[in-house]
């Protein structure tokens, strides 16, 4: 993993992004030279050619990201890659064509652009096939040792054993502390007759993860860990390892002293100004683009059952202040006639026919742009919850209120990483993603979440 503006990005994704941007830029040069070589009349290159090629590359990369080509879960096959690459290349070509025509004095030749899009798609598919197979080689694996053998060690090792291409680790073994129940395989326990540094050096270990809650007492190998650290072996705490690999902040590792003295959880004027500018720009742009869809949605809701079009629901915002969130009504008018708030369920019987469609496509969320423009919400942030549920969750989940230190959002890190929540267990998982966002939020992370939101909408992930 590499850390970019406080957000962890896999080395593979970073490498792919750089390689494919260069591939897309040079594909435009190659397409121009091919047409010239075969005698086709094309516009000569000028001083705007590189800027146009860069615009083509960025729009195509944005399109690829929206189709999930940089969200590498599991082991993507060549067929799976091709099925997403084809429409993303077509969309990137279309956006680049519109963009280059709208911008004054930019280089634009439709034939050059079309050949570049086809050539780049074929090249990227070939490169990805080679790169993915290369990353499967064991020589690229990073060797790990875990200190501990209990529940936390098992959880960390499960993350390290993830079969996805973005995580590649070889677990050498576990150092037993005899202070907790052993929940890992006995065959993976390391011998006690060798020092930790000797074992790490013998197995070319690059990192040691301290994965035990109990770090006090004579059984904890403090001096061994210091020896490893001073000899260039990385020593990482379990909380930091989980934050890096799962992009979550564990609630059982969140202590007041960590909040006060640790990195992150920063709220400064510059960040707030940048975020507000981002909110206004994105909200106005999406409002303008989606206005016809919103008008059609309003008409369909009105025709279906003559009920109200907009649904106002009280939610908890920044610093615990309540506000009314605006949504297109997707349920019957009497959905909560009992007066008691209910979690939304899969295939909820209260949902109308129009409601099922707009919830699947997330169209029901669009009126919340008004909440953003009013300053009650951000475009990206933790999803606002109802006061009834917030009160319950505050009592059951430690530090749940930390998510209320920033404005709630229309979309958020938990929304693109976790399915729709309908229980306390789901709320805990989503909170751990929200805490990661609160700790590490930046304009860069907001942009990534916005792109991942497009992927969620395109593939209707997590809707109910």
Automatic annotation (TrEMBL):
Residues 275-458 form the Bacterial sugar transferase domain. Coiled coil: none annotated. GO terms for molecular function: phosphotransferase activity, for other substituted phosphate groups. The keyword Cytoplasm does not apply. It is a multi-pass membrane protein. It is found in: Membrane. Keywords: Membrane, Transferase, Transmembrane, Transmembrane helix. The chain crosses the membrane at residues 12-29, 49-70, 82-104, 110-131, 280-299. The keyword Ion transport does not apply. Its main location: membrane. GO terms for cellular component: membrane. It comes from the Bacteria. PANTHER family: COLANIC BIOSYNTHESIS UDP-GLUCOSE LIPID CARRIER TRANSFERASE (PTHR30576), UNDECAPRENYL-PHOSPHATE N-ACETYLGALACTOSAMINYL 1-PHOSPHATE TRANSFERASE-RELATED (PTHR30576:SF0). Belongs to the bacterial sugar transferase family. NCBIfam families: EPS_sugtrans, EpsB_2. This is Exopolysaccharide biosynthesis polyprenyl glycosylphosphotransferase. It comes from Noviherbaspirillum autotrophicum.
